[in-house]
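User: Could you write out the 3D structure of this protein bound to S-adenosylmethionine? I've included everything you need below.
Assistant: Certainly. Input first, then the structure.
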Amino acid sequence: MRKVWHAHVHRCRPVNPASEGAAEAGTLYIVPTPIGNLSDLSPRALRVLDSVDVVAAEDTRTTGAMLTHFGIRARLTALHEHNESQVVGSLLARLAEAQSVALVSDAGTPLISDPGFRLVDAVRSAGHPVVALPGPCAAVAALSAAGLPSDAFSFFGFPPPKAGARRDWLQAHVHWPHTMVMYESSHRIQGLAADLAPAFGASRQVALAREISKRFEQHWRGEAAALPSWLAEDDNRQRGEFVVMVAAGAPPDPEEAIDRLLRPLLEDLEPSRAARVVASALGERRNTVYRRAMALAGDAPPTAKE
Ligand code: SAM
């Protein structure tokens, strides 16, 4: 009897009653949506989208179609990068009237290379609760499958779109101490891939994830120099959406940094002055830098006094 009673209690316990997971009054919900596979929309996300007073969407048609697929009829309002500042005021007013709001982007987690930062900042500043639902995010999914160190990583969004600026930007990160994660579109993936080996060295470990959670999902991992030819082998590999990851670089060689600063300074300054500037900029010992300055200037360092 006792066992039956326990079973009965367990079965009848309201695991997910109608009210559970429904939107709370005056709250902003950040709701990630699928980046490919619609089954990745969580039951909780569905519940929130179904119960909020308004869904602020990057593209109301895209989100409308997704919600229709799930049989949800929500009130939609547009919030995209061009109108975010204007829309924030009206959404704040709704929250102040105890309405609940969900923020979604076209795909993935809002604010991650998507609009929403201004809204969340304003909502927090106004003292309304912000609840983040965990869910699909291309960067996190890609990193979790790359097998590159993930204890610390840096997410950079999209690299600069223009080739020259992109090369400078990549070059500037040659010693970046954590795995770098970036987004790229099909228009620029070959350009980015071609710039990796010159910037980071041919053997730097690189990973690429494409079309995550979609039919032609692929994950590639190898040396930077091999990525352009892998992409070129099959035109289909250049299609779709990409996450590119680059392993961390070795810390800079202090002598390299000293030389890089000293060389241009020595064109205009005496070695002793150049050494003073560089030593203070880099926090290095002045004598060490002075010896190097003398060597670069083609003079032997003085031996008696410095
Ligand atoms: N908020 C989204 C997220 O959480 O991932 C990212 C939005 S951003 C505008 C779009 C970029 O994310 C794409 O250009 C691509 O780099 C990456 N991305 C989105 N979906 C992807 C997928 N299924 N596979 C690989 N990368 C994807």
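Residues 35-36, 105, 107-109, 112-114, 137-139, 183-185, 209-214, 241-243 surround S-adenosylmethionine (CB under 6 Å).
User: Perfect, thank you.
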